[in-house]
């Protein structure tokens, strides 16, 4: 076993699968990964990939260098309590649960002496194809080695950004954690718009996908700002200006920012709702 990167996912649902898909074969073998989940159907899918599974925490956990908590915020407290007896001094704990603050997790794991060998992380589902981005927050007990391990794991599925505090991680959640859903919503709207204007579904999907991909690639590679790139598309008195004036009249930018604030505030609510 690759001791350095042996890891357990506690919660083997969507996000754990997305992360594992990038890690297995790249950073570790299937046998270096272990999954604990209460759902037998979920466990069967992992076993098909050669991953070891368990329905509840057991001694196996103690031998894993890294734990990744990937259960819903609603069940984090009870799940952490079940795993805590198997913590070892050299265990690096990573949590991807939205909202649950690092200090709260440190308390649940450590009791009187908070467990600070802890990285709070917010990945996103494009990790599934190696195109994710994760925000990472390290507590005081995280050594340089631990940081390197966390980076190695998350860089296997995309890019990373270190942040300084829980509020920033909630902002990451509102932007890139939830963000793929905003993009999918926009994509759905574009496809429907094309269909409404007379294209067939296949044509519209192809055109919409290539437009989003091309525009984001151009923005990533160009030295120009998104605003300048937008202006270059917009001929005076032309079609783009006609469309953008509708977006502006309807307050598109403000709406996006309002939606993100709502996600950010929800993260704060999760922190209090499920941390009692
Ligand atoms: N889906 C997303 O785009 C992202 C999700 N997250 C976070 O990842 C976490 C997991 O989300 P998803 O994977 O989407 O949810 P999911 O529902 O697909 O997976 C959660 C898994 O946890 C299992 N589970 C429930 N109670 C358990 C327990 N006591 N012990 C072990 N396993 C248990 C469930 O059976 C399920 O398979 C959440 O906290 C969410 O905030 C973070 C970033 C992005
Ligand atoms: O919707 C959620 O709460 C999770 C966190 C970010 C993406 N999905």
TrEMBL record:
Residues 7-99 form the Pyrroline-5-carboxylate reductase catalytic N-terminal domain. Residues 167-270 form the Pyrroline-5-carboxylate reductase dimerisation domain. Keywords: Amino-acid biosynthesis, Cytoplasm, NADP, Oxidoreductase, Proline biosynthesis. Pfam families: F420_oxidored, P5CR_dimer. One of its GO terms (cellular component) is cytoplasm. It catalyses: L-proline + NAD(+) = (S)-1-pyrroline-5-carboxylate + NADH + 2 H(+); L-proline + NADP(+) = (S)-1-pyrroline-5-carboxylate + NADPH + 2 H(+). Gene3D superfamilies: NAD(P)-binding Rossmann-like Domain, ProC C-terminal domain-like. NADP(+) binds at residues 10-15, 70-73. Pathway: Amino-acid biosynthesis; L-proline biosynthesis; L-proline from L-glutamate 5-semialdehyde: step 1/1. It is found in: Cytoplasm. One of its GO terms (molecular function) is pyrroline-5-carboxylate reductase activity. GO terms for biological process: L-proline biosynthetic process. Its EC number is 1.5.1.2. InterPro entries: 6-PGluconate_DH-like_C_sf (IPR008927), NAD(P)-bd_dom_sf (IPR036291), P5C_Rdtase_cat_N (IPR028939), P5CR-like_CS (IPR053790), P5CR_dimer (IPR029036), Pyrroline-COOH_reductase (IPR000304). Catalyzes the reduction of 1-pyrroline-5-carboxylate (PCA) to L-proline. PANTHER family: PYRROLINE-5-CARBOXYLATE REDUCTASE, PYRROLINE-5-CARBOXYLATE REDUCTASE 3. NCBIfam families: proC. Belongs to the pyrroline-5-carboxylate reductase family. This is Pyrroline-5-carboxylate reductase. The gene is proC.
